[in-house]
Amino acid sequence: MRPDKKIHPEEKSNLHPRNKHRARYDFKQLIKSSPNLERFVRPNEYRDLSIDFFNPAAVKALNKALLRYFYKINFWDIPEGYLCPPIPGRADYLHYIADVLGATPAGASGQKIPKGAKVTCLDVGVGANCVYPIIGHQEYGWSFIGSDIDPVAIASGRQVVDQNPALQGHIDLRLQTNPGNIFKGILRPEERIDVTICNPPFHASKAEAQAGSRRKVGNLKQQRVSAAVLNFGGQSNELWCKGGEPEFIANMVRQSKGFGTACLWFSTLVSKQANVPGVHKALQAAGVLEVKTIPMSQGNKASRLIAWTFQTPEQQKIWRDTRWR
User: Fold this and answer.
1) Count of structural domains within the chain
2) Of 68, 84, 219, 279, which is the most exposed, with the fewest CB atoms less than 10 Å away?
3) Is residue 37 a part of any domain in this protein?
4) What's the CA angle centered on 94, arms 89 and 99, to 5 degrees?
């Protein structure tokens, strides 16, 4: 196959239609916006400008440039070793969950995606990067609560908010002092949340996380992989937990039942298709009234978003009419 006929890895047409990152990265424009990116940019095997996605410093510089260019975020940083997430995938989750809100209640006419600060989203495990609240507020004007069990992550997120006037007053970062709780201790009495989002720890141990990283490197056709390369970084609580993704989500589902009238939609990413039946079983046991499973993909990576609610269509309509109009 001729080089100009190869499929470029940067092409992301499988992303959500509203995702600003569907096209290949325009590195010339990104460099104009963020000159510090230039030292990481080189022609790749397709003769296109690109970066070394196995270089954590390059990935971080790209994230800074994307957040500045597309979302008008002039300051963004994370502590060394913390998760530096891929921006297109984070944006995809938010656009799909916006569709869930826009389709509430099912079957109603004249539905639109609710926008503005009256819509409040809880990001469970916001991390030091604060990327979900940044994109969600800049794209839809939503207010955010970001929770995390790591004080360093909370401090980092607050620094990002404090350094960007557009975010101030719209993102509230709260420390979860009891790692066993997800909503309790974060949501205040009588507080109402329109939707929750979560990117749960994928793995059950550090060894499993490293093995997953080796597979990722192999999938990207590196010739030799002598050690795990976590090019997007990540602390232990960001990457793994006891029981891994299945146990974390099952626990979240159980705890969500106690907040079924305080939140309209709960949601989570599920990285592995094999975990989906277990999540659906947990949702059934919790007595949820409606479940949506939405496939998502970015490049070779497939995942899915699962959203659930404990509210009837009538209750959903009252919620929409009283909070969003």
Assistant:
1) 1
2) 219
3) no
4) 125
Cβ neighbours around 190 below 10 Å, total: 6
Instruction: Determine whether 167 is exposed, middle or buried from the number of CB atoms within 10 Å of its CB (0-12, 13-18, 19+).
Output: buried
Q: Which residue has the tokens 């070779």?
A: 300
Q: Is 67 inside any structural domain?
A: no
CATH number, domain with residue 241: 3.40.50.150
Q: Tell me the residue range of the domain where 147 lies.
A: 79-323
Residue 49, in any domain of the structure: no
Distance of CA 121 to the CA centre of its chain: 12
CA atoms within 13 A on the CB side of 243: 10
Per-residue pLDDT of the chain (325 residues; tens, 9 = 90+): 333 334 344 555 699 999 999 999 999 999 999 999 999 999 988 889 999 999 999 999 999 999 999 999 999 999 998 989 999 999 999 999 999 999 999 877 678 999 999 999 999 999 999 999 999 999 999 999 999 999 999 999 999 999 999 999 999 999 999 999 999 999 999 999 999 999 998 544 444 444 444 444 455 445 333 333 444 454 454 444 577 899 999 999 999 999 999 999 999 999 999 999 999 999 999 999 999 999 999 877 899 999 999 999 999 999 999 999 8
Q: Is residue 43 part of a domain?
A: no
Chain centre to alpha carbon of residue 211: 22
- Collapse the DSSP code of 205 into the 3-class scheme (helix H, G, I; strand E, B; otherwise coil) and give the result: coil
